[in-house]
Amino acid sequence: MPVAIITGASKGLGRALAEALAARGWDLVLDARTEGVLKEAAGAVSAYGTRVTALAGDVTDARHRAGLVAAAWRLGGADLLVNNASALGAEPLVRLEGLPLEGLRRALEVNVVAALGLVQEALPLLRASAAGAVIAVSSDAAAEAYETWGGYGASKAALDHLAAVLGEEEPGLRVWAVDPGDMATDLYAAAVPDDGDPRPAPASVVPAFLRLLDERPASGRYAAPALLEGQR
Length: 232
What we know:
Helices cover 47% and strands 15% of the residues. With 232 residues, the chain is an alpha/beta fold.
């Protein structure tokens, strides 16, 4: 069975993607910071009958990242790495003039540095896979200028560029930066708590990610809405 490592997998997009992959027979290594919530998510995912290893921890911890990759190795390898864990930098989001520099550092550490660190740790297993792939969960804030989204958007723009370079350096892999579009997640609620507009459920964009895995287009940046539109 193929094996995926998914960070930020206890809720939102990470959990929705984990459930979709488990339904397809994937074995999974799941990460999140809150052990209780992660344990509940892992229990739900394991109901599909696949093997699930859940490791609570912070992706900025090198030992935790090594543990995630070691868990994948015990399951047989790593065919997919999904860097989904994210930090906003400020909750709720604020204009750049008031953005705490420590918050910006945290966003960069989680969204960029830790993501690259996990890629580096997992590369030997991904290269050994016949269909190794990396998904970097991006944002439209990486490409568009929105008030208050500067710190978070800058971190995702940096992640996009790392993904683009990795795709050039690792032609044997597929490396996709994916903008999932608007979703009703805890992250978005923390970013903009006063926004009462309805947002689609994370599960609604999972078919876009599955399309990438099925069709394996060239490494690059993709937007989930466009991928979903192409399926109609």
